[in-house]
Amino acid sequence: MGTLEVRNLVKEFRLGHGLRRSRLRAVDDVSFTLEAGKTVALVGESGSGKSTVARTLARLETPTSGEIMLDGRSVSGSRSALRAYRHDVQMVFQDPFASLNPFHTVAHHLERPLQLHGVARGRDAVAEHTRALLERVSLTPAEVYAAKRPHEMSGGQRQRVAIARALAPGARFLVADEPVSMLDVSIRLGVLNLLARLQREENLGVLYITHDLATARHFSDEILVMYRGEVVERGPSDQVILDPQHDYTKTLLAAAPDPARHGRLRDEVRAELAGERA
Amino acid sequence: MTVPVLSAKGVSIEYRTTPVVRAVRDVSLTLHRGEILGLAGESGCGKTTFAYGLTRLLKSPAVLTSGEVLFHDRVGGDVDVAALDGEALRAFRWDKVSMVFQGAMNSLNPVITVRAQIDDVLTTHRPGMSRAERAGRAAELLGLVGVDPARLDSYAHQLSGGMRQRVMIAMALALNPQVMIMDEPTTALDVVVQRGILREIMRLREQFGFAVVFITHDLPLLLEISDRIAVMLEGEIVELDTAENIYERPQHAYTRRLLESFPSLVGERGGFVRSGAAAGESGTGHAPGSDADAGPGAAPADSADSAADTTIEGTA
Amino acid sequence: MAENRILPRRSAKLVAGLVITLGIVVFAVVAPFLVQDPRFSGNDALLPPSADHLLGTTKLGYDVLAQLAHGARGSLVVGLAAAAIAIVLSLIFGIFAGYAGGWTDEILTMVTNIMLVIPGLPLVMVIAVYMQSRSLWLVAFILGITGWAGSAVVLRSQARSLRSRDYVEASQVAGERTVRILLVEILPNLLPLLAAQFLFAVVFAILGEAGLSFIGLGPNGSITWGTMITDAYGGNAMSAGAWWWFVPPGLLIAVFGAGLSLVNFSIDEVVNPKLRVVAEATGRRRATEASAPAAVPASPAEPKTEVTV
After folding, report:
1. Å between C306 CA and nearest CA of chain A
2. Locate the ABC transporter domain: which residues (chain A) (predicted)?
3. Residue C179 lies in a domain
4. Separation of alpha carbons C76 and C37, rounded Å
5. What is the DSSP string of B247-294?
6. Is C249 within the bounds of a domain?
7. Max CA-CA distance within chain C?
8. What string of DSSP letters covers A145-190?
9. Residue A80, SS3?
10. A70 or B283: whose pLDDT is higher?
11. B191 Cβ under 8 Å from any chain A Cβ
12. What is the pLDDT of residues B297-316, one digit of tens each?
């Protein structure tokens, strides 16, 4: 059992220059623990700071204050510590059209992390691992996909490659930043199910960042609702969705379309107008 | 309620490229006065092309190859949209049928104020209006869509995404059209803002009685607002029914698949796979094949999400 | 289907540009071996074109074709050498600055801006004046170190935008080193842009050399198209009506510039996605992605993925 823990994370961005400089607190005192084999959903609207949390966890941003702890140990900023950290914590980006280099083949994207983290040495071993990775994300026949370039694949396939790349170093924790929001609706579930399956099979800890409450509820064990940099509500996913406590969570839930409530908005508006006329 | 206002019969649209792409195939559809008709489908299904065809906005190499589009005017007879040109076409657009597109930032002119843009629509189509009348109407329109009329002197970049889209709706309302075509008008917005705008559209629809063709891939949203929903796949309408029937009794396999792509927020889990230890420990496990990804049968299904956009070359 | 976006599409523009450019390059490489000594003054002066002298002779009895052939070599050497120097400098000041950011960027950008605001030709003149004997290479060097700022600005902005691309960040997350990210992830995607900048620098340098020669600050003792025009001007070729003397070098400079520009336009269509979409929409079938009228792929097999039932 491993844990990835965030303690009192604060991230501020400097805005502007010179005298008109100001600070934007994108993440304000956020703490949570990600356990191996569990999924935590970080839910919020754009600008809530959820992506900044993801980027900080991926060490693309350095925290202004607060700590990131892997298996109970604080992670320092040294190069070797960072490499060791990245061996365990990887990220899946939102836009599979942007997160793969158009110039390189799929194989390149997978071979590099394999080599960098010493997972496989030697041409044959690397090729074998690449093939295995592609099969793990159901891109078969692997040889065919390994030779493709990003623009020859659909969004869903690209995102699978991105997931395989994140798994390549042997990561135990995955930060998935809106992993399906750029995909066509009918292939979203396929990608989410893939993540779920991998998590189950490999006991991954997943931080699922999304604005979609429905998949957050069904896909994760715990939900944290972020609003303006702060976590305003947290709890087991069913509890947060079915019995929200914070006003913001309630607003979000009321605004989210739900197929089960067809005709709701239409009828609500009619009732409102009827009420006004009466 | 069942008086037609716009009807399309056997509309086919092709992209005259090599090879020819048949984007819309023999689509017939009747829009009733005052109804909200949802047009659901994924990217590349032809829904936007079809909407452009309805309003004669197709640009080369897209060509309407067959079929007719009739507009049944509230006063006067039917108008053959395909036969319109020049002045008549200009008058038809905005005046009878108006449009709200995805991405208001691109639709609003960045260098002139909101007031000037609304003014522009009014001077073009209502030459008889005086300056004062136009100013009054502009303020009234913004009020209708829930934007402070003080914002009339703002430029597009000074408005939030939601406000921009509201301004677009105000402009579309300007001439009191009988039909509004909305192409993903709220897709880029956060749910709370989206909700507010949808609510506004619904209210205005009740007040002014225009019909709406609402295009989006977001089926749950359509289910909440639409009277009827048409599901498009590969350029064809595969199912057209009331929102209730689409949800309760979907006929076409594709409709069912789309519905399954959107798990209910508060309802039962259905077949959606719950990941993580909790589910595993509960002993219920997962019904065999529930995670199609895992099964050996997954591979062919998997590779099918290929063809869809292999032709799309690198995106910027 | 395996189209590589790095290569320009074959179009009339590209083919014409390549034919012109390669033709002149071949001429510069081969022709000097086939013509007489360009400094042989034993011919009659100011002969119009004839079978013996296809492009006539100059006032000093030099064969114009021979001069043109050696001049082509000289001009191309100046152009290529200057462009090579300029592109290396713009890589350092552009891409490195753009990627590194921070103070490195500030300082490098400041140097670039200074170079950008100093008028080019006067600077070149001042440097050239100080050099008593100017070889071809020295002129190329002077043109190279004064002509990189423009493309550095372009490359910097491009590198800055690439730096924040997801795939660059993804390789950071994978643990890739900065140098490798620059060379393996970023640079290849800049190749079309670099090629365009390089070709532009070649044209710029050839024109610059001609300009320098014309005001008497060109290379001493070498023949280029620029020195030919200068000689023709000094020898009153215009008033003597000896068009065969001054037209060919001028024409070649213009045609060569046009040829490279045509190649550049084709590369531009690769670099600039907007131009690419136009090229695709007109020339070939290409779905235009999500942007407005959603085109359907040829075999519109809608994605049929696994959905849990």
Report:
1. 5
2. 4-253
3. yes
4. 19
5. HHS--SHHHHHHHHTS--SSS--TTPPP-SHHHHHTS----TTSSTTT
6. yes
7. 95
8. HHT--GGGS-HHHHHHHHHHHHHTTT-SEEEEESTTTTS-HHHHHH
9. helix
10. A70
11. yes
12. 333 333 334 333 332 333 33
Q: Which residues contact B27 (CB under 8 A, 6 or more apart)?
A: B8, B10, B11, B12, B50, B67, B232, B235, B236, B237
Domain membership of residue A156 as a residue range:
3-254
Check residue C192 and give left, alpha or beta (phi > 0: left; psi -120 to 50: alpha): alpha
Structure ipTM over 0.90, yes or no: no
| Confidence (pLDDT) at B85 | 81
Q: Which domain holds residue C258?
A: 12-283
A10: CATH: 3.40.50.300
**Inside any domain, residue A119:** yes
Inter-chain contacts counted by CB atoms under 8 A, chains A and B: 187
- In this model, does residue B96 exceed pLDDT 50? yes
Exposed, middle or buried, C213 (CB in 10 Å: 0-12/13-18/19+)?
Answer: buried
In chain B the domains, ranked by start, together with CATH numbers, are 4-96+177-260 (3.40.50.300), 107-175 (no CATH)
In-domain check, residue A72? yes
Rounded to whole angstroms, the Cα distance separating A128 from A105 reads 16
| A248–chain B nearest CA distance, Å | 10
Domain count, chain A: 1
Residues 236-295 of B with CB under 8 A from A: 243-244, 246-247, 257-267, 269, 272-278, 280, 291-294
Nearest 10 degrees: CA dihedral of A127, A128, A131, A137?
-120
Chain centroid to CA A54: 7
CATH label of the domain that carries residue C184: 1.10.3720.10
End-to-end CA distance of chain B: 45
* Torsion angle of the four alpha carbons C50, C55, C59, C60, in this order, in degrees rounded to the nearest 10: -100
The Cα–Cα gap between B77 and B65 comes to: 25
- Quick check: is A71 in a domain? yes
Tally B–C CB contacts below 8 A. Answer: 128
Q: Which amino acid is at C181?
A: I
pLDDT in tens, A15-58: 766 667 788 899 999 999 999 999 999 999 988 999 999 999 99
Q: What percent of chain B has pLDDT over 90?
A: 39
- Chain-chain contact of B223 with A215 (C-beta, under 8 angstroms): no
The total number of structural domains in chain C stands at: 1
Output the pLDDT for position B249.
92
Question: Please, which chains are in contact with A (at least 3 CB pairs closer than 8 A)?
Answer: B, C
